[in-house]
Design brief:
alpha/beta; UDP-galactose 4-epimerase, domain 1; 7-stranded parallel sheet; 13 helices; oxidoreductase; Rossmann fold
Length: 312
């Protein structure tokens, strides 16, 4: 008999993807709680139950009691702390754990060489495998890059809509995977649904909004803005080398992450080393999970219109 997931607690619910996942779960009828630090000033909707924690084992177990699933959306650079969270989930009798993945395919062996900041994600799934016999199952959700989220941040992934600039790598015709944040939320909710809870048990699942190229994004942006973008050309190999040099410097970026991390992530998202081509190598779960098809031009137009509205 399939497990029924009703009560879900989300960790990192005030981050970049967390609020969207909370909304997606609520829209699909789940009873949703959020876990936040005692010291956090984040506020949440009255439709969710808030559990505050100091991240001690006892505190986490107390928060997880009665929860059927834990969805982790903590930041990449906090991923190593998930082992303690997993231990608490086992103690509390949680049925399903969704680790903080939501990126390129970290199941691949070349992750350690090509995207070292994401290695803790791979290690987290390895740790989850050791807990299967204790009754905790898992699902890792691979999404490529956050498409609409990324385009809204000037300079992120080398797109700058306000400045009308872009950097195109390797000619711009290499395909890669991108997913809108609402589609990610739909994928998580579908994975926990009674229809798919067994299908997704102890597996990586692969979803997207688009398999696209940089040149397709550029064309959509120029159509939506009615402007030409100033384009700089480079290669992913050069980007990767620069990122490695920055990492070796031991410096910290303005965001607090190791210098070079963002460049490594950018190279990976654009397909360096085969880390983001899973629609070809692994196959998509979109149709199986009932996820809608999304339109690139419509998404880009929405982002551009939102950018215009924010300037008024």
């Amino acid at each position: 008999m399939a497990s029924i997931i009703k009560n879900v607690i989300v960790i990192g619910a005030s981050g970049s993807i967390g609020p969207h996942i909370v909304s997606g779960l609520l829209e699909n009828g789940f009873s949703v709680s959020v876990l936040t630090r005692i010291t956090s000033s984040a506020t949440f909707s009255s439709t969710v139950t808030v559990h505050r924690t100091d991240y001690s084992h006892a505190s986490l177990v107390d928060a997880f009691k009665g929860q059927d699933a834990v969805v982790s959306t903590i930041a990449t650079f906090s991923a190593p702390q998930q082992a303690g969270i997993i231990d608490a989930a086992v103690t509390a009798g949680v049925k399903r754990f969704i680790p903080s993945e939501y990126g390129v395919d970290t199941s691949l062996p070349q992750i350690a060489e090509l995207l070292l900041p994401a290695l803790p994600k791979q290690k987290t799934v390895e740790y989850l495998r050791t807990k299967e016999s204790a009754g905790l199952s898992w699902t890792a959700v691979v999404v490529g890059g956050f498409f609409d989220f990324a385009l809204q941040i000037p300079g992120f992934l080398e797109w700058n809509i306000p400045a009308r600039t872009a950097t195109i790598f390797d000619g711009g015709d290499v395909e890669f995977e991108m997913t809108n944040v609402a589609q990610i939320a739909r994928g998580v909710a579908a994975a926990l649904s009674s229809a798919h809870i067994e299908d997704t048990k102890n597996k990586y699942i692969y979803i997207n909004s688009f398999t696209i190229t940089q040149n397709q994004i550029l064309a959509a942006l120029e159509e939506a803005t009615a402007d030409k973008f100033a384009v700089t050309h480079s290669t992913k190999a050069e980007l990767f080398k620069n990122a490695q040099d920055l990492l070796k410097s031991g410096k910290t970026s303005s965001s607090g992450s190791p210098a070079g991390s963002l460049e490594l992530i950018t190279a990976a998202i654009y397909g360096y080393g085969g880390l983001n081509e899973y629609s070809k190598t692994k196959g998509l779960w979109n149709e199986k999970l009932g996820l809608p098809k999304e339109d690139l031009k419509e998404t880009v137009a929405r982002i551009v219109n939102r950018s215009k509205a924010s300037k008024k």
